[in-house]
TrEMBL record:
Keywords: Membrane, Transmembrane, Transmembrane helix. The keyword Glycoprotein does not apply. SUPFAM superfamilies: PLC-like phosphodiesterases. One of its GO terms (biological process) is lipid metabolic process. One of its GO terms (molecular function) is phosphoric diester hydrolase activity. It holds the Pfam family GDPD. Gene3D superfamilies: Phosphatidylinositol (PI) phosphodiesterase (3.20.20.190). CDD domains: GDPD_SaGlpQ_like (cd08601). Residues 13-259 form the GP-PDE domain. This is Glycerophosphodiester phosphodiesterase.
Length: 262
């Protein structure tokens, strides 16, 4: 398969640090991303959302409630309000074994800060999150990627087909992943695979609902498959055995170890 902008590691399986090395450090913070890079993840995964005043920030949930000491929707808070929040203490309380004093000084990073900090030291798996909540999330994200000259260092994923189709219309080469989520054993039709192949290079799918046949079917259609979020060793081993192309994990070091032993 020939995707000029997609990175293929020597191990043949891509490691995506999901929200950074978020098993070990507060998710979606510079600490978590730095650790993901230090653990040699091929990509750091970033959920992109927008503040009330239109700044792009890294945050998974629609609200700041779970991962900061504040409350409210990201889209209803200004960047200044978001920046006043503590984005690390919650982690220390929840995971005392990985707690570090420096995490209490973590803030919610903007996408600009992430690009400024890491530049071309890593690759970025950007997720366009909840685009229906914002008018121009794709445009703003793409503009920032262009400003930093990082087109060859990114891949973009979304649950929104519309978002991906829009981005594909701007760039033929950027690797795109359609995210899928199943609440029962996964099934994908030939029709769906053909449809996705029309605008994306691969899919991201919740690992626990798929099996080897699903993986083979997706690959047979010429699409890449990067399951998420694979955190336990036995699941990592199975994912690799089934031939997935990449894995999203909160524990990139663990996955690196598993694929080294293959
Ligand atoms: O990386 C894929 C995954 O991020 C999609 O699910 O909920 O963690 O954003 P979620
Ligand atoms: Ca995500």
């Amino acid at each position: 398969i020939d995707f000029p902008s997609l990175y293929f590691p020597e191990s043949h399986i891509v490691t995506v640090a999901h929200r950074g090395a978020s098993g070990y450090a507060p998710e979606s913070t510079l600490s978590s991303y730095r650790l993901g890079i230090r653990m040699n993840a091929d990509y750091i995964e970033i959920d992109v959302q927008e503040t009330k005043d239109g700044e792009l920030v890294a945050m998974h949930d629609k609200t700041v409630n779970r991962t900061t000491n504040g409350s409210g929707n990201i889209k209803d808070l200004t960047l200044e309000e978001v920046k006043s929040l503590d984005a690390g203490t919650w982690f220390n309380r929840k995971h005392p074994i990985y707690a570090r004093e420096e995490y209490t000084r973590e803030k919610v990073p903007t996408l600009r800060e992430i690009f400024e900090t890491f530049g071309t030291d890593t690759r970025y798996m950007l997720e366009i999150k909840d685009p229906e909540d914002y008018s121009d999330l794709e445009e703003k994200t793409w503009a920032l990627v262009e400003e930093f000259g990082l087109k060859d260092y990114i891949a973009i994923q979304s649950f929104s087909k519309d978002s991906l189709v829009k981005i594909r219309s701007w760039d033929k080469n950027v690797p795109l992943f359609q995210l899928l989520w199943y609440n029962r054993p996964a099934h994908i039709s030939e029709q769906q695979l053909a449809d996705i192949s029309g605008y994306a290079n691969g899919i991201g799918v919740n690992f626990l609902r798929i099996n080897e046949n699903y993986v083979l079917k997706v690959k047979h259609a010429g699409l890449l498959i990067y399951p998420y979020t694979v955190n336990y060793q036995v699941n990592m081993e199975n994912a690799a055995k089934w031939g997935v192309d990449g894995v999203h994990t909160d524990f990139p070091d663990r996955f690196k170890e598993v694929i080294e032993e293959l």
